[in-house]
Amino acid sequence: MEYPGNLFVVAAPSGAGKSTLVKALLELDAKLDVSISHTSRQPRGQEQHGREYWFISADEFNGMAARGEFFEWAQVHGNLYGTSRAAIEERMAHGDDVVLEIDFQGALQIKKLFPYAVLIFILPPSWEELMLRLNRRGDTAPDVIAERMSNAREEVAQARHFDFVVVNAVFETALFDLKSIVHAQRLKYAAQRRNRSAVFRALDLP
Ligand SMILES: Nc1nc2c(ncn2[C@@H]2O[C@H](COP(=O)(O)OP(=O)(O)O)[C@@H](O)[C@H]2O)c(=O)[nH]1
Ligand SMILES: Nc1ncnc2c1ncn2[C@@H]1O[C@H](COP(=O)(O)OP(=O)(O)O)[C@@H](O)[C@H]1O
């Protein structure tokens, strides 16, 4: 499938800082929009239905999956998560750039459907720091943290299938790296189309 916009996929082990980085990236980049996934997990902390996720029951989720309403879906840490066609199809058809914050299984499914998607893996600087961040976030129970830390080993091993790896040690540096990847992809895409006005738009030139 091919749409005129760019598609960025960001994955990371839980607690690496993916949501915080993507939120900061969106604030800096008016041309980028994040996809809101559906999940069967319960809302956490300050999360709101329709803002962080569409929170639905496992039955509703399975119904949507059976009707083919997802581009991709996966079971992660015991819950179901998926990117609905409705969430991104219209925006991509308009040529807008979209970022998906999903796990590695979903990222690999998206790459099969959209080979031009740019896959970015966020790494924590160390296992110790990952554990500290999960604890510091303060909204995740100890048994859930333990499960996420044990799944993190398998997830990090998948980084080799991604186009880019960003280490989130110093936040501002990681954010700059992400911005650079988005910027470079826009220039590459514009150059491929040999489209002068697209190159100027990517450079933010008048
Ligand atoms: N495949 C897939 N994974 C998703 C989707 N939405 C979120 N995830 C992933 O599910 C995992 C758990 O997310 P979440 O429950 O928000 O916990 P967090 O990673 O600790 O913030 C993360 O790896 C997310 O990237 C989706 O639509 N599809
Ligand atoms: N570079 C960083 N240095 C220190 N703390 C960070 C950094 N990046 C993110 N954090 C913090 O780590 C915690 C986990 O970040 P979050 O974005 O929720 O992770 P994820 O979405 O990958 O599960 C949050 O409390 C966040 O503020």
From TrEMBL:
Subcellular location: Cytoplasm
Pfam family, one: Guanylate_kin
SUPFAM superfamilies in the record: P-loop containing nucleoside triphosphate hydrolases (SSF52540)
UniProt keyword Kinase present: yes
Amino-acid positions noted as binding ATP in the UniProt annotation, renumbered to this chain: 12-19
EC number: 2.7.4.8
PROSITE patterns: GUANYLATE_KINASE_1, GUANYLATE_KINASE_2
Keywords: ATP-binding, Cytoplasm, Kinase, Nucleotide-binding, Transferase
InterPro entries xref list: GK/Ca_channel_bsu, Guanylate_kin-like_dom, Guanylate_kinase, Guanylate_kinase_CS, P-loop_NTPase
Domain Guanylate kinase-like: 5-183
Reactions catalysed according to its record: GMP + ATP = GDP + ADP
Main location group: cytoplasm
GO molecular-function terms, A-Z: GMP kinase activity
Protein family (similarity comment): Belongs to the guanylate kinase family.
Protein purpose: Essential for recycling GMP and indirectly, cGMP.
Name of the protein this chain belongs to: Guanylate kinase
Name of the gene: gmk
